[in-house]
Amino acid sequence: MPVVTGESPLTRPLTRRRALQLLGLAGGAAALAPALAACGSSGSANTLAADAPVAGRFEGVTLKLLVNQPHVTSFRDILAPAWNKETGGTLEVTAAPYDQLTSKQILDVQSGTGEFDVFDYFYFGLGDLVDAGALVDVTDWIDTNTSAIGVDGYLPSIYDPYTLLDGKRWGLPYDGDIHILFYNAELLERHRLQPPTTWDEYDEIAAKITKDSRGAAYGAIVSGQQVPMILGCSYINRLTGYGGNLVDANGRPELTSDASIAALRHLVDVAPVALPTPLQIGFDQANQSFLSGQGALLDTWTDMALRAEDPTASKIAGRWGAVSLPVGGTNKTPRTALDAGFGLGISTASKNTEAAAAFLNWATAAPQNLAVSSTAGAGIDPVRGEVLDSDGYAKVVTLAIEPIREGLHGDPLVWPKANGAPKLLQDLVDQLALAIAGSQTVEQSLENAQTSWENAAT
User: Fold this and answer.
1) Residue 315, class by beta-carbon neighbours within 10 Å (0-12 exposed, 13-18 middle, 19+ buried)?
2) What domain of life is recorded for the organism (predicted)?
3) Closest C-alpha to 71, from 381, 344, 380
């Protein structure tokens, strides 16, 4: 059985190519910060043979996986038994907290430990992993086996963002993460309110329910833990709602735009009426509070639909709903973002690359993607169009299917993913947190973040 174990940076010239490299939008893994160790470089990374298998029997082969903690169920309980049955191989699953995942994957390779074969990686950490020499280049293998892998079946909105860097492929998409807005239908009905379509309406709902409930419930749950995966998502959800972007068309940071200011100001203003205390609310706290009926509104990952409808885990089964993220300001078009998101890649320290390659293909194929996307607690969302559009998936996510399809079939905002991107995102959320805590103004926080990103680019 598997186991879970001098010159002003604001005026310094910033070239278009350098800015695009900064954010991974030119296909380049630019050197934005010193490498974690001098021994790692993308040039020395292994390359998977073009004729490596896409399937096979692997009796006696144990693949060791280092995965995101919320994904353990998908690998251990769903994929591992099926992989063993179909191939004879074994999966051994080790979990890492989401705020340590990329660094632990790099450390495993660069320390010489080399324990793991497959990495469940954040796409925004792709540049750091490639620069550290931690991922095998799978470009030739994919190009040779395009049909067998079913490359055309991956959602266009996520295939390149999750796998492509510096003109090469480093993995296959596994978890198509976006956020939508979930609501507690009972709380809204009790207060004679409708689900919000704008952030102004969201504010009105949050304030009214919190005031009228007098501590029994809160109008909003705001996930504000000071890491990119949590507070970063909450800010970016509002940024897209107000029609903003992290960068402009030339790749230059836009963190001081009107939309960005509105997004952060929204987080600051809603905090007093949100579930206490936003900066201490992480993934688990937010989910449990919503599922227990404590909050009316929560923007979070789409697999909440499965959790909410599971009577063994939820007190609001049959009494919830979901809509696209609200809009604000002059923007009238809902848009989501690729919030977090994961691919599967092969560690350069693996001694089982053939089995690992076959596993990447198998685990991201439609049958497995449907299985993990349809299981409550697995934490996985579709990466394939046929899964997203299937009746089987629609049946399990029920009321959330329309906003999910709208988001993944749309033009979601892509996070930076070049070398150094995790640090830049952490710099951003550190500044966001200072504003939410009242330690500095919204404008100063965003100016500081803008300076940090521009410094990195030059």
Assistant:
1) middle
2) Bacteria
3) 380
Which burial class, exposed, middle or buried, applies to 395 when counting CB atoms under 10 A from its CB (0-12, 13-18, 19+)?
A: exposed
pTM: 0.89
Could you give the CA distance from residue 141 to residue 164 in angstroms, rounded to a whole number?
14
Q: Give the dihedral sign, CA 59/61/62/64.
A: negative
Q: At what angle do helices 421-436 and 258-270 cross, to 10 degrees?
A: 50
- pLDDT confidence of residue 292: 98
The whole-chain average pLDDT of the chain stands at: 91
Residue extents of the structural domains in the chain? 30-177+340-408, 179-337+420-457
Angstrom distance (rounded) from CA 442 to CA 434 = 9
- The domains spanning 30-177+340-408 and 179-337+420-457 adopt the same CATH topology: yes
At the top level of CATH, the class of 30-177+340-408 is alpha beta
The three-class DSSP label of residue 45 is coil
pLDDT in tens, 398-445: 999 999 999 999 999 999 999 999 999 999 999 999 999 999 999 999
Assigned CATH class of 179-337+420-457: alpha beta
Token pair for 334? 């809902």
Phi-psi label, residue 250: left if phi above 0, alpha if psi -120 to 50, beta otherwise:
alpha
Under DSSP, the state recorded for 452 is: H
Q: How far apart are CA 101 and CA 99, in angstroms?
A: 6
What is the pLDDT at residue 129? Answer: 98
pLDDT value of residue 398: 96
Q: Is the dihedral of CA 372, 55, 130, 417 positive or negative?
A: negative
Paired residues of 344 in beta bridges: 120, 172
First to last CA, the chain: 50
Question: What is the reported pLDDT for 458?
Answer: 77
| pLDDT higher than 90, residue 144 | yes
Q: How confident is the model at residue 223 (pLDDT cuts 50, 70, 90)?
A: very high
Q: Has residue 11 got a pLDDT over 80? A: no
Distance in angstroms (rounded) separating the CA atoms of residues 349 and 8:
42
pLDDT value, residue 217: 97
Angle (nearest 5°) at CA 439 between 436 and 440: 85
pLDDT at 8 over 50: no
Inter-residue contact 124 to 101 (CB < 8 Å):
no
